[in-house]
């Protein structure tokens, strides 16, 4: 839940800190007082793009900080994955400057995309234009997909891997298909270049290895003398490793009498065995050291040939090796075009077959989830005074048989979904956008928010006038549904409906005041008596009658 929100120099908010409580909290007040600014500031904490126009006039930056608590392991997984400290409370900070925006989670700099990813597990904000997302079928698949579900993520990732493999194979197939004629015109050049490069039988990092060998042969005398002198210094009539061994044996006899003796014994033992190994290495180096002038000449000739190729083709050794492979493929295209094309076609069909299988697995999971969603949404709509609701999630049949039709597949799968609805008895289901009125859309959206908030274990839901377009008993049912959500998630709601305000656990009155030629947004946590007065204002306007006060008491005590 959102524990505290601090806002500085944001629009007409100069410096405001609001402490929130669990349960359902409503924000009420006159239009333009700044209620939506509170929601906008929270939206920025959840990844909304900022605008320098949001900075209060005369100031250089706006600052917003939110402190959250949560009980969702997905958030800890997100923090761990992104190397963000896991703390008892989650702190999100946004700073908006004239030319840039800064975002931090637990004092760690993050991107807006990371804030948006975190928001999927933390909170959901409904603003008035969100309802129109129900008109857009492109958004439906994202409502169905459960990003916190392990099985979904597994199938989704498998599909994406198969999709990328198919696209790569398709690209290679198209390249082979389109390249034949062009390559025939270049046949002589290709053959000459390939023969010239392949004749050297280049290997990775060979130029560096040759240079190292040449350097070693050129400095043969220096290496031999250094090894010889080193050996003589370690093994001569005045100094012998055997003497160290004798000293080691003497220290071994007394090591148990004193810890210092034991420490010296250990150091002497390590020195003896290290020195023995080093002496053995030097003897081997001398035994295997050999100067071969013929090899030196051969290495110099090969290095010159490699360097000449690098200069001629303007490529590094690694690029030359890759270029040789490309030339081989191009020559193969010209000389064995039908065979190469057929192999590419077989490969494409196989990748297509694998992709179709992964796509069907993902579709099957989505359909199973869609049946569950249908039943729950119908039940929720019935709770919101839509008793005759019929709701179906329709999956359009997609022909996946053509292995050359890459347009049948998308990043998120192959599924095209339509939400079908009927709210009137005896009427058939039709696309949602064609049958729902404004008030119905608000209730349907609330049903969706209720369902998906529960599924996602969100700790905070925010509603900005989701109750617009309704009144009377329907308004009370919407209020009850928000109150029900508040039993498992914190709810913040902007409302102009007395029924919604009256059922809330807490009511904050947002108002603006003018001082010294400037406008300021402020708030007040209302007492029960103040809530009665405010709800009476919502019922009757500026002039509060005793009847409105009685009605407000009745609503508040309902």
What does this structure look like?
A hairpin with a 3-residue loop joins β5 and β6 (101-105). The chain folds into 2 domains: 2-155 and 358-526, Rossmann fold (3-Layer(aba) Sandwich); 188-335, no CATH class. By secondary structure, the chain is of the alpha/beta class. α5 crosses α12 (317-335). The longest helix has 47 residues, at 337-383. It is built from 19 helices and 15 strands. The protein has helices at residues 35-45, 73-81, 112-122, 140-144, 150-185, 187-198, 206-218, 220-234, 241-254, 259-288, 293-313, 317-335, 337-383, 432-435, 438-456, 472-485, 498-503, 528-540, 546-556; strands at residues 2-10, 13-19, 24-28, 61-68, 90-97, 101-105, 108-109, 123-126, 390-395, 417-422, 430-431, 460-464, 490-494, 506-515, 518-525. It has a 6-stranded antiparallel sheet with strand order 2-1-4-5-6-7, covered by helices on one side. Strands 8-12-13-3-14-15 form a 6-stranded mixed sheet. The chain is extended.
